[in-house]
# Entry
Amino acid sequence: MKKIKKILIANRGEIAVRIIRACRDIGITSVAVFSDADASAYHVRMADEAYHIGASPSSESYLVHDNIIKATKDSGSDAIHPGYGFLAENATFAQRCIDENIIFIGPKPETIALLGDKLEARKVAIASDMPLVPGCEFDNENMEDALSKASEIGYPILIKAAAGGGGKGMRVVDKPEDFKESLKRASSEAISAFGDGRVYIEKYLLRPRHIEIQILTDQHGNGIHLNERECSIQRRHQKLIEESPSPVMTPELRKKMGDAALRICKETNYVGAGTVEFMVDEDMSFFFLEVNTRLQVEHPVTELVTGVDLVKEQIAVAEGAKLTLAQDDIGINGHAIECRICAEDPQQNFMPCTGTLNNYRLPAGPGVRVDSGVVIYSEVPIYYDPMIAKMVVWGKDRTEAIERCKRALEEYRVSGLKTTIGFCRVVMDNKKFVSGDISTAFINEEYPNHNFVLLSDELKEQAALAVAVDTFINERKIRLDEESNQNKKSEWKNHYRKQAVKRLGGNS
Amino acid sequence: MKKIKKILIANRGEIAVRIIRACRDIGITSVAVFSDADASAYHVRMADEAYHIGASPSSESYLVHDNIIKATKDSGSDAIHPGYGFLAENATFAQRCIDENIIFIGPKPETIALLGDKLEARKVAIASDMPLVPGCEFDNENMEDALSKASEIGYPILIKAAAGGGGKGMRVVDKPEDFKESLKRASSEAISAFGDGRVYIEKYLLRPRHIEIQILTDQHGNGIHLNERECSIQRRHQKLIEESPSPVMTPELRKKMGDAALRICKETNYVGAGTVEFMVDEDMSFFFLEVNTRLQVEHPVTELVTGVDLVKEQIAVAEGAKLTLAQDDIGINGHAIECRICAEDPQQNFMPCTGTLNNYRLPAGPGVRVDSGVVIYSEVPIYYDPMIAKMVVWGKDRTEAIERCKRALEEYRVSGLKTTIGFCRVVMDNKKFVSGDISTAFINEEYPNHNFVLLSDELKEQAALAVAVDTFINERKIRLDEESNQNKKSEWKNHYRKQAVKRLGGNS
Amino acid sequence: MRYSVKIEDKEFDIHIEYKSEKYIATIDGKEVLVDSHKLGESRSIMLLNNKSFEVDVRSNGYDNSKTVFVLGQEIPVEIENYNLAQLKKKAGMSSSTKMDLTLKAPMPGLILEFKVSVGDSVKKGDPLVIIEAMKMENVIKAAGDAVVKSISAESGQSVEKGDLILEFESDE
Amino acid sequence: MRYSVKIEDKEFDIHIEYKSEKYIATIDGKEVLVDSHKLGESRSIMLLNNKSFEVDVRSNGYDNSKTVFVLGQEIPVEIENYNLAQLKKKAGMSSSTKMDLTLKAPMPGLILEFKVSVGDSVKKGDPLVIIEAMKMENVIKAAGDAVVKSISAESGQSVEKGDLILEFESDE
# Structure
């Protein structure tokens, strides 16, 4: 067992900050890396040390293996934590770390490669006796083959990138006429995101829930799961609101899904933290979706209800320690909800925004945890993911968690750019959400045209008043300043007049 | 049972913010009150509504019964939450609320009066079969009587205000020669703080722990305790660092102290949240100290390990609800530590400071809760308590809590005034603190002369470098600006020279 | 002072005066007692009939248009002197009801591909252009029926937020 | 540029230069690579040999004295041009080693009571004056042995931080 003393975090934003915090919590020195655009970013300020690794585009900095390895050597770090995204699921990079005698905090390169290829993962899932959604691969160069296979499965069809993740390279196709265009788009997005344009198709379930199992395994063959997360509130196949436990989970189903997740870990000699994602249909039957071989964005909801610090566990596993937790140690204490705070305009189909955070104040107090990648006056650059922070609340039950979530969202102060805060606040009032009746179709079903009615008539009236008052006060100040200048001028005039009178021989 | 719809919070600072958050968490409208100095204070910004109640000195605003009652009526509030301090333990004000048909969120006036008078409280404690420190009252006008009684008990002696609380009007006397002067000071402080100069004396224990039991009782005779809090790290008899559970507590002692606390509640028909304070001697024998008939500053450590929101429970009890929690529901989940962040200079005997928070950024992330009464650019005025925030951390055990506490203290960013942050950070490294070997004498024993060695040689070197670099960059900028002006001037000169040459008939 | 303030579909008639050290506002006939303290250049705490708001009012650099941040929302506001607004209305100059015949970049990004050419008729919802921003491909769709009059950018070009991308003529 | 920087008991000799777009500092002979970005008027993020610090350097309004906030600490710093500092030292002008013979109000507050009069001899630790601030009575004690030379305030008077309260003569 090798104690890790220094970790380089090959990432940025909130997840880099999250990992730096874990390092500090266990006395490990943290090393940040940064691109030009991130020279004064929060993760750089938070870390013990920081190394510049290139220009702003991630392809010239955060994705450059050589630069990351050089910073690791220069800083004398023992290990690299990749966070999520960037190099987190890059088997070549994981192998490079091994070759350079650096601990890669994540599964083995072969596991990453195997599960990262969605087509290979389907095969492993079959071998692990996991239920699968009907789907298949096809010859990417042969459009006719693709079209006929799509028709066999039946529309709607979901096109997915073989190398995919995070909703990139994913397209829903409702009818054969749209198939070609969508395939082209998905493939081109997959190339630009992963450098791999291979796609495959699956039957598109209309109203599935997205439920995933957090797993944790060590190098000695021990493994546990840490309950489920429900992540059904999504836009563009990207999660926006997640919670644990799922409002529809039963202990029996949890055990079944947990066991299935651990089977695939066993099959792939999985080491570390990971997530097995499932779709759960309306009849509560579940299907294997994919395995994310990394820390998940939404891991804090699991941390809040289990009391386990997943990043610390990742580090311990990477050091070679045996799990100190057994399955029986994992309980469920209360309920946690995460809202992703993204620099996006929900009304404009969640279009990304950039800008400067002229005001930025986190909610705090009982039951609120915020993992933020930005602080006041931070600039949100165009180059990276629009998620600037995660707000996570804990309550003794789902009702308390929802109420606290509303409070905390209202307490969040942001000016300078649009965010998903108002959208999340609206969802917290949605009757279907409150009753737990959700699916990945939630946003499209409840808010067609993305008209979230964020502004009540009362708020409009108050906002109008606020602007009028502000304008009035500013105009009044200018008027008063001018008057005071006028007065000064008249005083001068009087003064000169008196002088003139004097010169003219007058007496006062 | 009467549902409360609107609560006026007769307080300011972090506790007002804390109560406003609880109101929001249960959909109750919150009403803040503010003095002149607090017109743009954080609690005013946080509340749904806010009413001005007078000039800056608390004697002209937060302590004026009429003004608070008027704001309550004007805002149509059903109830008043007094927080701690100010009117929280004022029986006359609690009675006034009843007379005005306003719910006072706290115990009955007669309970407050009885337990607020420390001399009466001693009698009740005897009736409740509680162990007491040797001590007595005496004729305040007769110094000879006082001196002889003090000698009977034996020095060191502790002089305490009968109406006391929060360390005010309290003095330790080591030898008879100092007795008169200390008595005078304690009495005058008691008059200015409580308008009641009566004092009494107790044997001063040299190295006691301060351990207190949180209790919660309803209007129907049900009562539970929520474990203990250890609050031994004190300066000037005011707590600075608190934790739950106590590092020396055993389940048996917890039960004994909890039972004793509940006995005195029964004896006094106590209703609501309250705290029974004990001193615990080195042999683990415990003595009754006093009952605080209100929410305690350090209540969050209890909330973090029990999952109970004490302010919500106070409100439910005030509405007349029966406790939904039984003693068996109260477990201990992990460990919590609170650091009080005060605008004070620890090196100068914790002298209060005032100023503007030019920078103010809260620590966040896993296991950190901050209840802050200020935000960036807030002014800390001279009129009120120097505590500006409480930082509370949770860990799965005391070790994790201490490590997280260090991290969070280092993450806290304050500029503009001195605080207790650095002091708390030093304590977290203190071997006696880490081993749990603490008493109320901790600060004086470990840091005589209050020389906390806050600055390591390394930090001094880094700070020196930082200032030199900053100075160099500023000077360089000024130099460059001047040069560029010079260049502009020379360009102009050249221009004019050319013009002149032209005018003289030259060719260029 | 009397203002005409517009937010989305709502138009408010607001009168404000300063009398004996207090601001008094009247909005559509209702009186509101106002207390306001500046927190910085653009931020204030306001009490409107004792209701507490923290607001950030920013000028957008062009006439009458401001943005207010309040309760986690970014709200675009048009504010004008009331009398001027009335005059403009009479003259049929209400600029805010005019249809927008330009497509401006809704975010900074890289133009990947145009789906239309000059002269094309487009229907509401038709894809116009694909912009890559923050690693996502965003399809910008037509807000109404129109004809493409001119295109001011090209594929592969970087655009800033607000840059003109193309112009329509109304499809009437 | 070469500076002499003093923090508590430590004195540092620091040389800084700007070369090929990098700042290079030398502190007591050791070379330190510096990267610095301003975050606002007084705040910066600094990398000192790649170690990350967020610092806030504020001038105290009078000569050479600055305050730096770093890692939760407020640190008073004296900084001077190195050559000037050396000259001063030779001339025996080192002001920072001079004993402070004035008592200034350590906080804003109300003077409750003087415990000494002009001409009194005081020993280190003797109470001098009681100031009420933030609802606490604070006893200000003598920092060394001295004789009270003059008293510049009176009981019941409000003082600001830094106001002169009394002056000593050294008890020699």
Observations:
- The longest helix of chain D spans residues 82-90.
- The radius of gyration of chain D is 21 Å.
- Confidence is low (pLDDT under 50) at residues 94-99 of chain D.
